[in-house]
Here is the input.
Amino acid sequence: MIISGWLRHARRTLLATGAALALATGVLVGTATTSQAASQQACDIYAAGGTPCVAAHSTTRALYAAYNGPLYQVRRASDNATTNIGLLSAGGVANATAQDSFCAGTSCVITVIYDQSGRGNNLTPAPGGGEVATPDRPADATSAPVTIGGQKAYGVFISAGVGYRDDSTNGVATGDSPEGEYGVVDGTHYNNGCCFDYGNAETTNHDDGNGTMEAIYFGNASYWDTGAGNGPWIMADQENGLFSGSNVNSQNPGDPTINHRFTTAMLKGESNQWAIRGGDAQSGSLSTFFSGPRPTGYNPMHKEGAILLGIGGDNSNGAAGTFYEGVMTSGYPSDATENSVQANITAAGYADTSSGTGSIAPGSRISLQATTSCCTGDYIRHDDSDTKVVISPVDSSSSATVKADSTWIVRAGLANSTCVSFESANDPGQYLRHSNFQLYLNANDNTSLFAQDATFCPQTGQNGQGYSFQSVNYPDKYLRHFNYTVYTASDGGSNTWDSTTSWADDTSWLTAQPWG
Ligand code: AHR
Ligand code: AHR
Here is the structure.
């Protein structure tokens, strides 16, 4: 890796910071196309365009109409047994029920993401590399639930330390050869760590110099290029830089902040030419955010043909993101082919599992309302000025900031996926956690202590209303408000907030519709 000392420092520092969501401001260049018949899936469309898939990865659906093999493999914690998860029907969607039964009563990780192209380019947890010498962990198999075509499925939830790679591939572009790539990602799950990538990388797991990568990047890392607004952006990891355009370390205002719940991110490259395209994976067409020559120092390219997911080329593994499907092609796909692929993606019917009021399913956005008679207009919120967590009144006339500060994204529990963690809606990567039994909003530092401090197991509310949230590492303590501050508290104990007075009411919460 060639990166100056301050930049290296800045990158590590930035890993710990959050970033506000910004509105997407697309530059519409692409045109809508008609929906694809189910007889053609994404890779059938690329093949018809003369740019066939050489790798096709998805945990949610078949990317060829004729594909009827396994999508991915899971391993369960109870006995380390593995099983393959396939499709409900040829060319259809994942059989997530098979995963649910295999993983019942224990937890599972995703150990293989199979290549559907027939070339054997399967992804497995990445080996150590130049930046992080230790291998990466597999993703939790249940942390990214969605529905697709009305059926339940799971994505690949990448957090710091999780990543996949294949250093020995077949048919993937090398040198200056042309290729195309796309990924469907969760536009609301990202950070500024290096690097939530999918695509072509070094076969050595080291930074082999400018042009030795060509991978889609999604996130708000701002220490190389940036786009418009605060991010996240779709950029191209071409090694020693995440590029939004042709100029090194600059801003391309044409590359918008894009954060659709399901976002299509596309990248393609050929000799001294490359392009970024993107759109909403649930509806509408693609836009072109950049198309032009290589940055100085990147022509010709020196692609090596490995495939990675969720990490940088040198195994930098500080990034977060969620991947549902993606492919790599041989040849530079036409815009028309890509537009047809986008129509196929939107027709697949990705949707959130969120069911609104009352839901605590992972992926849901909620607000948490107090039930004590003093405080039924109060919700759990953080404050931008410090890391403390309080209850305070929120209503329809509250500011957008207050509404966002009191909105939480339910995640599968960081320490126990049958429980939950609460990620801030406006500070991605930051979670409610206790420390000295008081609640704070802190960035996940990936320690097991943090995971435990941020995991709460829902039970029926102590006062019969809503839920009580039991601390996973102090099972006698529950989320509680006391003097308008939030703690984890036992019913009688040594801290003032363990007071038995109105304990049941103070520890019972309604899951309300999200304010933000
Ligand atoms: O190009 C950005 C990153 O820089 C690469 O992913 C990584 O190999 C290097 O640290
Ligand atoms: O948190 C507000 C109130 O403070 C609680 O209901 C009570 O326990 C304490 O007095």
